Known about the structure:
The complex is a heterodimer of chains A (337) and B (529).
Chain A: E1 8-9, E2 14-16, E3 21-23, E4 31-33, E5 48-52, H1 56-63, E6 68-71, E7 76-79, E8 82-88, E9 96-102, E10 105-109, E11 131-136, H2 148-164, E12 168-172, H3 178-185, E13 193-195, H4 197-209, E14 217-218, E15 232-235, E16 251-256, H5 263-269, E17 273-275, H6 283-293, E18 297-303, H7 305-314, E19 318-321
Parallel strand pairs in A: 3-4, 4-5, 5-6, 10-11, 11-18, 12-15, 12-16, 13-14, 13-15, 16-17, 18-19
Antiparallel strand pairs in A: 1-2, 2-3, 7-8, 8-9, 9-10
Chain B: H1 2-12, H2 17-30, H3 33-43, H4 54-65, H5 69-79, H6 82-89, H7 101-110, H8 116-129, H9 132-143, H10 152-163, H11 167-173, H12 185-190, E1 205-206, E2 208-209, E3 223-229, E4 232-239, E5 242-247, E6 271-279, H13 287-291, H14 301-306, E7 309-319, E8 322-323, H15 329-340, E9 349-351, H16 360-368, E10 375-382, E11 390-391, E12 396-400, E13 404-415, E14 424-433, E15 436-443, H17 449-461, E16 463-467, E17 470-473, E18 478-483, E19 485-488, E20 496-499, E21 502-506, H18 518-528
Parallel strand pairs in B: 1-11, 2-12, 7-9
Antiparallel strand pairs in B: 3-10, 4-5, 4-6, 6-7, 7-8, 10-12, 13-14, 13-17, 13-18, 14-15, 16-17, 18-21, 19-20
Helix pairs in contact in B: 1-2, 2-10, 4-5, 5-6, 6-9, 10-11
Amino acid sequence: MSKSQVLTFTDRGIYCPAGDFYIDPWRPVNRALITHGHADHARPGHNRYLATQAAAPILRHRLGDIQLETISYGETRNLDGAKVSFHPAGHVPGSAQIRVEVDGEIWVVSGDYKLEPDGLSEPFEPVKCHSFVTESTFGLPIFNWQAQDEVAAQINAWWRNSIANGITPMLGAYSLGKAQRLLSLLDTDIGPILSHGAVENTTAILREQGYSLPDTVLVQPDTKGAEYPDALVIAPPGALGSTWARRFGKVSTGFASGWMQMRGVRRRRSVDRGFVISDHADWDGLNRAVTETGAENVFVTHGYTDIFARWLKDRGLNAGIVSTEYEGEAAEGAEAE
Amino acid sequence: MKRFARLFREIDGSTKTTVKVAALASYFQDAPDDDRLWTIALFSGRRPKRAITTTRLREWAAEKAGLPLWLLEECYPAVGDLAETIALLLPEPDAALDLSLTEWINRLRDLAQQPEETRKAIILDAWDKLDTTERFLFNKLITGGFRIGVSQKLMTRALSQATGKPEAELAHRLMGNWSPDDTNWHDLIESEDGSTDDSRPYPFYLAYALEDEPDALGSPEDWHAEWKWDGIRGQLILRGGEQYLWSRGEELITDTFPEFSRAKDFVPEGTVLDGEILVWNDGPEPFNALQKRLGRKTVSRKMLSDLPVVLYAYDLLELAGDDMRQRPLEDRRAKLATLFDQLPEEAPLRLSPRLPFAEWDELGDIRKTARDNRAEGLMLKRNDSPYLAGRKKGDWWKWKLAPLTIDAVMIYAQSGSGRRANLFTDFTFAVWNGNDLVPFTKAYSGLSDEEFRKITAWVRKNTQQRFGPVRQVTPEHVFEIAFEGIHASPRHKSGVALRFPRISRWRQDKPLQEANTLDDLKEMLAIYG
């Protein structure tokens, strides 16, 4: 397919023979380059890690005492025979695409990405390459995201409406990325934001790094819902409907995910409101990203791989499917991010 | 359509029954008569005649979206609903047109007389003028099946709030084979005399399962016991010189069972019976026999002689044109017995016998013999109970036998549809035959959402081969399958077929090798088949 195989796909992860490193490997390796801090991409047990400076605090928080080197966006580093650089992926704060160049042949591994700037994550930058490794979590044309402002307006209207009816709105969101993006969209004139411990941990780290996030009140064991009649509560999806949630009395549950576009998924989660918002590219986003790289070869990793690859082939590209252990925005949400 | 779309969003946007009922009630108060009549019709499974095939609908939608047809076909299983898939794929509307629900329905109905090109133009034009929710509903009007979480019970409650009429009366009014073409809001809901239609059945009274021991029900002498037969529930109506047979799912099945055309030779005009339809050959046959008769529009003479059916009547709802439902069960049963006294053998009617008992323990012993009597357990009814509408707790209970169970290995998985699209929920199970696994049943339900999520993630990682939507998975997980009956079936590889198979639990404690064997199944067949 290409004149030299810059990256190969192994059962440990995506491997660069010239540089002797892996990108987001799922089994322990000597040297791992990490696109972002979500658990299916940043796993424990590697000897050495390389990630962006912006991703480092979260990685340390999640993986503990690891040997971690950092790199700036756009900075080039030589790893044996390979030149590598990290470029914003727009997925979550600190997330990157990784560009690998060997003998003039350029490959880009996108990790997870979205094209729309969310006001918090470093905005996605297209990187020219010969071969592009892309996700396809939402690689079906039924997925078309509304503009972020519109979703923000829906969420804030739901907040206002709920408290007007004496009900506490409780929003489920993954603790890294989605939760903070939602925080930044909330209209704090309506009332205070109460935050679950798991969300608060991550928020505190990002706030410390200088990301601009509104104030939140951590829910303590003795916190009573009645003390905050105007509040919105933000919590990991698993906390909705749990005993933890009972302290808030009557609640209206909301869940924010790209999967909420599908009625079936929304009903299965049995939340009152589904907000369609994702940190992954929608159908147009995926297609635009592929086009903007100028790549002839596209490798589709996780999501609707076979369908998206077939579509790309129809468009005249060399497209292949790569089997990985990445999960994307898992349809059921509780475990993956 | 905007009003109907708003109603739909309110119903669909909440998991709380009170919110749904309030939204419906307010709609039933305000909407124009023809719209609310159509809304009742749609939510109770009635729909306008299909004017367009789904094949055309797919083609036109793909064309409109600028996508190849194969891609639309791939989206469909992910979404699990064609109407929704199309609504999501179409480009943004470029105009708005606010016609009422009824006006849209009438437009669709007019299509039937149009040439195909005109039909296409009208559909594409509609898509251009409706937003995503409205399009979904519009497509649903074409494809049918408005299952959106509004049960009959919920709808009658809302109607009752809106009109002030009692729920039971409304439930009765909504029964039968009316359509918005042959009635109107006033006649159906408001008129003083709601029973203008001879075919209209009464709402079935449904029992809850008895969870505890029957001692809690009080004194045995207050209770009537009979077998819970393993057939299908039916309501036989003899009015106006005609007979009508309704299934519990409110389907008119008169033509499926021509045996009952003779019923009027044996019981008088103005009688309505509630009972069990069973195949009878000197005694009730298992459900398996009846199954061969179901769903047929025409019935061969051979079938009528090999598999004749009877109605095992257990209740009398109408006698000489009088509604008997408020009378106590004892009274209804006594009249039923009189009516059936000395019926000849050739009558397609039998009285479901009362099982006398003095003590609950004695009844418990009788229950143990249910399978020998071709029954699934017992029915317990309070002697003084009226015949209520719908599922109500208190007076009627079903006391079924514990199901049969077998431990089996999951070997194929398939994703569900609708609410369960994207989740593996349909499984094929196998038992050991030597070193081979022989598939013997499918089962769909019985796991929690959490377990379905877990097994879905596992299936994704352990797929060995794909056959279209079906995935062959590594044999690893053992599940306990519960079922109500077993019978020989030459069409199945295993030689057996199960009745009501479902997953009763995930045996994560059980190693693969300890699943049951084909010999175990055959032994069950010998005992219970």
